Each structure stands twice: as structure tokens, then as C-alpha cells.
Amino acid sequence: MEELVVFGLTKSVGVSNFSISQIERICKMAKHKPVTNQVECLIYCPQKELFDGCKKLEVTLTAYSPIGSPGRPENLKEADEPVALEDPFIQRIAKKYGKTPAQILLRNLIQRGIIVTPKSVTPERIRGNFQVFDFSLSKGEMGYIDQITIQRRYFDMSAMFKDHPERP
Ligand SMILES: NC(=O)c1ccc[n+]([C@@H]2O[C@H](COP(=O)([O-])OP(=O)(O)OC[C@H]3O[C@@H](n4cnc5c(N)ncnc54)[C@H](OP(=O)(O)O)[C@@H]3O)[C@@H](O)[C@H]2O)c1
Fold first, then answer.
1. What domains can be seen in the chain, in order of their start residue?
2. What is the distance, to the nearest Å, from the Cα of residue 28 to the centroid of all Cα atoms in its chain?
3. What pLDDT score was predicted for residue 162?
4. What pLDDT does 75 receive?
5. What is the percent of the chain where pLDDT is above 90?
6. What is the pLDDT of residues 1-37, one digit of tens each?
7. By the 8 A CB rule, do 71 and 102 touch?
8. Residue 159 has pLDDT above 90, yes or no
9. Exposed, middle or buried by CB within 10 Å (0-12, 13-18, 19+), for 36?
10. Is the separation of the CB atoms in 39 and 47 below 8 Å?
11. Ligand 1 atom nearest residue 66's Cα
12. Atom 1, ligand 1: which residue's CA is nearest?
């Protein structure tokens, strides 16, 4: 991957689902450090330690499934799982700002300094997911979201790669 940078075939390289120890290890040995680490990150999986650790190494964090991946295959969902788009506080502040819950979830991550990758095949939603730069959440609202205690990972990589020594 580093050679792709040397040959000008890509500007930079990123990694995905790396733990902090893996990021530290690769940053020590790399000539071209990864610029980002893409991991699941949203209100129920805020990745605080990983974010702080990456920041120290000047590696950005990119959030996948930033609005909770509501379109995941049904067999990856649990009947009583918390749904980020239906979170009561998120819905309340969405009404206050005249925004959608998705826009509040994205704005929260952006204000934390996290890159977001919402996926949509719906033109109206794609446009809406960009309309997050004309308002900001207050310090109190950011703090309230920061205190959410629900923990939910929608993609359980450890189950997928359970016997691998480098599993995420
Ligand atoms: N690196 C990794 O291991 C990894 C793992 C998982 C995902 N990803 C990547 O991360 C990106 C996003 O992840 P994701 O698709 O799992 O999760 P997501 O972006 O949180 O959710 C996408 C789902 O939300 C719906 N949606 C989009 N905007 C919406 C809105 N404004 N209001 C309501 N629903 C909305 C989409 O429906 P419609 O499309 O029908 O509009 C789609 O079903 C994808 O590009 C994916 O490939 C990476």
C-alpha cells in the first residue's frame, strides 16, 4: 500500500477496524503512516479511547455506520436492540433544530472531529446528509450525548474473526 503512495497512485492510505495497539504498531514501522482509521462509531459506540489514541498519532478517525446502519441484513439485527435514529434525545433535538435524527447523529460526530461516511441510495437523504453545516449542537447537548450509557456495536467483528490473533 505504501508503494501506491510512492508511485502516485493514491494520495494516502487508510486502515479499517484497527485497534489502538495495531495503529501504534503500524505508525512505528510505516514510511507513509495511515491517515485514517475507519471504525464503527456512533452515539452507542463512541470510540472515545480509540479516538484519543489516534489523535495523539495524528491519525484521523472515520466513522462507518454513523447513523446506526438501519439497512443491515435482518440476521445481523437483534429484536430489542437500541436504534440510534429512534433515540429519544436525538429525536428531541432534531425537532428543536428542524433537522432529521440522521443529521443530528452526523453533526454530533463532526463536532467531535470525526469524519462520517453515511451511506444512502436515496437522493433526498444523500442531499439531507450534507445539510449539517448550517447549525451546531450546544455544549450541553454534546455533553448529554457524551453521557449516553447505552453501548451497542452493530457490527461484531470479534465474532466474525474470533480465532484470528489480530481480530479487531
Ligand atoms: N470498514 C468496515 O468494516 C465497514 C463496515 C460497515 C460499513 N462500512 C461502510 O460504511 C458506510 C456506512 O455504513 P452503513 O451503510 O452500515 O451505515 P449507515 O450509513 O449508518 O446507514 C445506512 C442506512 O441508513 C439509511 N439512511 C441513510 N441516510 C438516512 C437518513 N437521512 N435517514 C434515514 N435513513 C437513512 C440508508 O438507507 P437508503 O440507502 O435506503 O437511503 C441505509 O439503509 C458504507 O459505505 C459501508 O460500506 C464499512
1. 2-68+82-154 (3.20.20.100)
2. 24
3. 83
4. 87
5. 89
6. 999 999 999 999 999 999 999 999 999 999 999 999 9
7. no
8. no
9. middle
10. yes
11. 20
12. 16
Cell of 40: 464503527
* Ligand 1 lining (C-beta closer than 6 Å): 16-17, 38, 64-71, 85, 100, 102, 117-122, 125, 128-129, 155
The model carries a pTM of 0.96
CA atoms within 13 A on the CB side of 105: 28
Neighbour-count burial for 71-99, b at 16+ CB within 10 Å, e otherwise: eeeeeeeeeeeeebeebeebeebbeeeeb
Contact 51, 129 (CB under 8 A): no
| Residue range 128-157: mean pLDDT, rounded | 95
Average pLDDT, the chain: 95
* Residues written for the chain: 168
Cα 96 from Cα 114, distance rounded (Å): 23
